Protein: Protein translocase subunit SecE
Amino acid sequence: MKIVAYIKEAIEELKKVQWLSRKQTINYTIAVFALSAGVAIFFMVMDLGLNKGLDYIIK
Structure:
């Protein structure tokens, strides 16, 4: 049974993984959200500025 062997091997490999602690996971999640929000705000400001500049040039 290749499927059973595959599942057993996968479980053994997962036991070797060093999982992050709860605190690390929370900290990394917060960092990702903060960075994503920062990038979104940056592009929003750039978009607004470029639109205003283009409107000024066209008019």
